[in-house]
Amino acid sequence: FIRNLNLIRAKVPILKFRDTLAGVDCDLNVNNVVGIYNTHLLAMYTKIDWRVRPLGMFVKYWAQRMDIHDGSRGRLSTYPLLLMLIHYLQAACTPPILPNLQAKFPKIFNYACPLAELDMRLELPWAELRSNNPASLAELFVGFIHYYTNEFDFSRWAVSVRNGAPLPIDMAIRRLPPHEQAHTARSFKVFVEGRTPGQVSSIMTAPSRGLQMVSNGPLIPPGAPLSFASAQPNISSSLYMEALSLTIWQFYTRTRQSKAKYAKKVHLRNALLEVVSGVFKHAGLFIVGSSMNGFGSDQSDMDMCLTVTSQYLQQKKEAFAVLSQLLPPLRNCSKYNI
């Protein structure tokens, strides 16, 4: 029961649609496999420490309310924002909340690892990886803002989870494809290195604008639908910090993706794979992004990556052509009982 099919031409073409039975909006790309690896890495970080998921969801919400979360306007999209949080938990907390998984397990968190070997149920020695840092959710949230407002020099450093420490910007730029280096160095202000050395998110507008907005004001955005009032706080107040921790936790428990919604998404993915396999016999279909990495809500769209070849696929022409071939069967997919 697919509705609102819309094939969008872009640098990475997207087929958008809504499944009315599951109540899920979907974005489907072709062979943009970096998203699969990114999803796997973020999901493993959420399993190390219980504080990562609520912090990630609240930081995303906070950034939206501060108007610094919108990749389409040259601001922070969700993925680099979450990498900034993980980097902070690695590099700016004493002792660190999170380790560097890519340094500890290079054979697992390797872009060359075959997709078939990426296991979302992977078991690592979680107890050994967990930190004894007792910081509260509020302390970590305030520390995140302080770090990127007062300590991190965006003019010199790139955020790097892969390094587990800030990376000189010139080094991050040298890791980009040669034809992208000059434009990136000239045009962008903030650099967040992804899972692989050549994957750098370049952001036009530095997040320090939004961070400065709260340096002398409430940490809870005005008008937020939260139980804790957004009155001018005294950051040193233990009562305020306790209330802020409770607010972050309540926001997480109220908005996180339910098991029922996740099950609907998995069922939809399985049904869609049957449809896709009728066109591309050996296709793979992966749920990526917040629906799978632990930072999703019941309102989150389901992003998916369709794999049709192990070879490089030119996105603007070849990927668009692949998605075009899916339009007829998806228009008739109600007979598949999705």
From TrEMBL:
GO molecular function (one): metal ion binding
Family the UniProt entry places it in: Belongs to the DNA polymerase type-B-like family. GLD2 subfamily.
PAP-associated domain location: 136-168
Cofactor(s) listed: Mg(2+); Mn(2+)
Keyword Translocase belongs to the record: no
Intracellular or extracellular location(s): Cytoplasm
Residues annotated as domain Poly(A) RNA polymerase mitochondrial-like central palm: 2-46, 244-336
Entries under InterPro entries matching the protein: MTPAP-like_central, NT_sf, PAP_assoc
One Pfam family per UniProt: PAP_assoc
Protein name: Poly(A) RNA polymerase GLD2
Keywords: Cytoplasm, Magnesium, Metal-binding, Transferase
Domain of life per record: Eukaryota
Any one GO CC term of the record: cytoplasm
GO biological process, one term: RNA 3'-end processing
Metal-binding among keywords: yes
Species this protein is from: Fasciolopsis buskii
